[in-house]
Amino acid sequence: MKPLLSRVESKKVDKAAAMLKVLAHPKRLAIVDLLGKEDKMTVTEIYRSLDLPQAIASQHLITLKDRGILSSFKVGTKIYYSLSIPKLLDVIDSLEDCCDAI
């Protein structure tokens, strides 16, 4: 791992902070965690799994996709979402470990 000073001097820190802001919402974090367990899911599968209104789930999916965290593809009339950055699951696991330690 690079020393903190060299990471702070780069634009990567700004990008990381922006990504963490997107993930800071509990529902978006839940979507990322869910898609980490599944290869791909439709909007319907996601909102039903998380017991969310469809419109709310769609808004969160769009936000995550716009930030490059999710990718999507269409098959017929269905849009499937998948995780673009699987390493984010390590971040979620680390945060969960930190919360358990508190």
Provide structural commentary.
With 102 residues, this protein is an alpha+beta fold. The protein is built from six helices and three strands, in the order H-H-H-E-H-H-E-E-H. The longest helix is centred in the last third of the chain and has 14 residues, at 88-101. It starts with a helix and ends with a helix.
What's the gist of this structure?
By secondary structure, the protein is α+β, with helices and mostly antiparallel strands.
Q: How many E strands?
A: 3
**CA-based shape:** globular
Query: Residue ranges: pLDDT <50 for 5 or more in a row?
Result: none
Helix content: 55-70%
Organism: Hymenobacter aerilatus
Protein name: Metalloregulator ArsR/SmtB family transcription factor
Keywords: DNA-binding, Transcription, Transcription regulation
GO molecular function, one term: DNA binding
